[in-house]
Amino acid sequence: MNRRTLVPFLTVFVALSLVGCASNQSLRPATETDWQPPGEVSGDSARAGRLWQVFERYQGTPYRYGGTSASGFDCSGFIATAFDEALGRQLPRTTSQMLAAGDVVERDQLRAGDLVFFRIKGKDQHAGIYMGGETFIHSSSSIGVTHSSLNGYYWRDRFSQARRFD
């Protein structure tokens, strides 16, 4: 292609490329608030619904080591608060105490409301509440109260066990 035919070709190419950018649609990346809980939640749907309501109330609350209130939660503090507010159920306060209580549940038998535990730096030190659809809610040290996937990049290889508190 010579310069004489290349200039019109490039002009048309650039014009067509810009038309694609001129859309008046408002496109934005998905955010945490766009996320909706799974439609089909395994286990007791009333129990799951009450836990989702607590999650929605505290979503975004910052992480605070030892925290048990809306000013900040650690992972076990969020779990204990969620169970108390949603289910009227008192759970042990720390992750290690939670690990020593409840009934062991195999991963393929998880139901909404089961606690899931994760091994970080060689020991079980993080926990969340399984909500169905491979999703769990928790207080993350980096984000605060949030939801994550058991199959997510960070969590998938750190899952260690689950407990049920019926």
From TrEMBL:
Please give one Gene Ontology molecular function term for this protein. cysteine-type peptidase activity
Which Gene3D superfamilies does the annotation name? Answer: endopeptidase domain like (from Nostoc punctiforme) (3.90.1720.10)
Q: Per the UniProt entry, what are the Gene Ontology biological process annotations, in alphabetical order? A: proteolysis
Which key words are in the record?
Hydrolase, Protease, Signal, Thiol protease
Start and end residues of each NlpC/P60 domain = 45-166
Q: Which domain of life is it from?
A: Bacteria
**Which stretch is the leader sequence?**
1-22
In the record, the note on similarity to other proteins reads:
Belongs to the peptidase C40 family.
What name does the UniProt record give this protein?
A: Glycoside hydrolase
Species this chain originates from: Marinobacter vulgaris
